[in-house]
Amino acid sequence: MGTDIGELLEKTPVELSDLSNKIVAVDAYNTLYQFLSIIRQRDGTPLKDSKGRVTSHLSGLLYRFTNLLEAGIRPIMVFDGKPPSFKSGTLDERRKIREEAAVKRDEAKAAGLMEEAYKYAQASSSLEPGMVDDSKRLLEYMGIPIVNAPSEGEAQAAYMVIKGDADYSASQDYDSLLFGASRVVRNLTITGKRKLPRKNIYVEVRPEIVNLEETLEKLEVDRKQLIDVAMCVGTDYNPGLDKVGPKTAIKLVHEHGNIEDILKAKDQFIEDLDEKKAFFLSPPVTDEYQLIWNPPDKEKIVSFLCGEHNFSEERVLKAIERLEAAAKKSGQKTLDQWF
User: Fold this and answer.
1) At what angle do helices 56-70 and 313-330 cross, to 10 degrees?
2) β 192-195/183-186 pair status
3) 86: which of 64, 120, 305, 316 lies 20 to 30 Å off by Cα?
4) Looking at residue 193, what is its pLDDT?
5) Among residues of the chain, what percentage have pLDDT more than 70?
6) Of 91-100, 151-160, 280-289, which range is least confident?
7) How much is the mean pLDDT over the chain?
8) Cβ neighbours of residue 39 under 8 Å, at least 6 residues apart?
9) What dihedral angle (degrees, nearest 10) is formed by the CA atoms of 240, 243, 248, 251?
């Protein structure tokens, strides 16, 4: 979920075409959870194959990443590694929320409350190890490079932007800014019309850019202080301070200068504060990756999606045609250097 500082940030709407010829390091887990959440049938049931295996994430990867490649965007999928030990509480809480949502989903279905069932079905989405392995297989067959981060995927994506190997970090969360990414793009893989929860209203979702330098200038803070603001509000590694939202957090940082003095003034405590701040400033990352966008492997995509997971061969072949056309148009530009 990341930190909830979005209302403080200046976001610039763009079109996919504005990102043509740009390299985007995508937070893979964040993106796969999006697909699992929103690619569902009307009653909230995810897409499944004949063996009952969920395939919503594979559908999202094929069709939505085809859109990106067609727009001239060169995505890199960055997968999480081992989370820091102080994230365990957050992960346990998320697991509990998913389990409770699954119970409420079943209750709503039994009562015939389909909209309620859909909402709770989204909240019960779970990314299993087999889904990750299948996602990596499909990405390989589509020719999209994969980077396996030693720890947080967003930290690795931010590092690649800092290093100049990517132009943007892509995630719905804002943690990439805390990790130092100079440019973050949101809504990259969920563009289009979306229905508002519990309302018969649809809104147009467009990609939007957040620039770190502009954000710091607007908020009149440096990056360390932005981390302090996030820790006041709450991050994946600590709950927020009592009765402190984003606007109050920025006021507190302006008044006190840093999180340490804020905690003293409010007589509150954040466990392992120094370690958590240090993690944002210098997270584990790797240089061991190779960025090459290969042509799609038609036979392997068809065999995997249609043969193993019962996708419509007609639809898959049309997507592959688009992938092949995009690959031909791009000339398969690569960063042909090893790290």
Assistant:
1) 30
2) unpaired
3) 120
4) 64
5) 89
6) 91-100
7) 89
8) 46, 47, 56, 57, 59, 60
9) -80
Distance between CA atoms of residues 145 and 69, nearest Å: 12
For the record, the structure tokens of 228 come out as 């302090």
Under 8 Å between Cβ of 22 and 223? no
Tokens standing for 24? Answer: 């985007």
d(CA 240, CA 262): 12
Here the tokens at position 190 are 């969920």
